[in-house]
Amino acid sequence: MSPRPRRALSLASSIALCALLGTSVPWSEGHADWLPLAIGNQWQYVDDTEDAHIESITDEGHVRGRRMFVKSYVGGQDDGLVNFWQIGSDGSVLLGGYYRAAQPFGLLYEPPVRIFPGSPVVGMEWTSHAIAFSVPDNVFYAEFDLYWAVAEELSLSPPAGTFQCFGVGQVAPPAITFAPEGQAWGIDGRVLRSAPGVLGTGPASATEWYADGVGLVQYNTGVPYLLQSYDLTVPAVTSSWGRIKGLYR
Fold first, then answer.
1. What is the distance of C-alpha 166 from the center of its chain?
2. What is the tens place of the pLDDT at every residue in 39-53?
3. Would you place residue 4 in the very low, low, confident or very high pLDDT band (cuts 50, 70, 90)?
4. What is each CA distance from 210 to 51, 71, 167, 207, in whole angstroms?
5. Cα gap 26→151, rounded to integer Å
6. Is 3 contained in some domain?
7. What's the domain range around 152?
8. Phi then psi for 227, rounded to 5 degrees?
9. b/e map of 184-193 (b: 16 or more CB within 10 Å)?
10. Is 86 contained in some domain?
């Protein structure tokens, strides 16, 4: 099944997000590239029914004073989702939040949540502490801690090829979910097929697998998603949040 055209954010939603802008911060260099953030980079995934969707870096801007890249989802159950990403000074993959225009609802994190470490080693653990602000109203939503671990290192062979990967997961269930009409969302805004209560506290098991220079090769939200193809050939371009607003009008 081919991904559907991207849903447009409303002008009102764009203006609400624009209110959270700030100043830029330095960009990291010289580390492994666990999530290549360049405008035009694109990954296509298939689920266990071979339904395809595309995730692509569509623009960059500033979210709560930090330079972030926008990843947009086309097709599948997360069609229309956008979330915001940054690479930390140590090469870590940082999540700044998400927005789902169809609801409309999203969360922005202060500071960004560390999803993947810059120098992973099996058994490594870390804690992410953040305050979440809801959008578009930009008010306090929750304060939380998430506990993560590098669960494994292995070779994976999805349809896109064979990759040496590190798998990461949470030691405890997600502290933040939003559940409109019975749907549970993860901290990046993706739909979770398993209810949060099912994910009992205990040892970490991997839910996301990253490869250096490629990004997310496989992930599981209650449904497994495998990398079918990817295109990382487009170089990054300087842009602005004003251009992002133009995209979603």
1. 17
2. 999 999 999 888 899
3. very low
4. 21, 16, 7, 10
5. 30
6. no
7. 11-247
8. -70, 120
9. bbbbbbbbbe
10. yes
Smallest CA-to-CA distance from 80 within 61, 104, 59 is with 104
Name beta bridge partners: 68.
Answer: 61
Q: Residue 56: which CATH number?
A: 2.40.360
Domain membership flag for residue 5: no
Q: What are phi and psi of 135, to 5 degrees?
A: -125, 150
CA–CA gap between residue 71 and residue 63 (Å, rounded):
13
**In 10 A of CB 122, how many CB atoms?**
12
How many Cβ atoms sit within 10 Å of the Cβ of residue 139?
8
Locate 23 and state its tokens: 């100043």
Q: Which run of H or of E encompasses 247?
A: helix 241-247
Q: Is the dihedral of CA 133, 81, 94, 126 positive or negative?
A: positive
3-state secondary structure 145-197: EEEEEEEEEEEECCCCCCEEEEEEEECCCCCCCECHHHCEECCCCCEECCCHH
**Which pTM does this prediction carry?**
0.80
Is 2 inside a domain boundary? no
Q: How many domains does the chain have?
A: 1
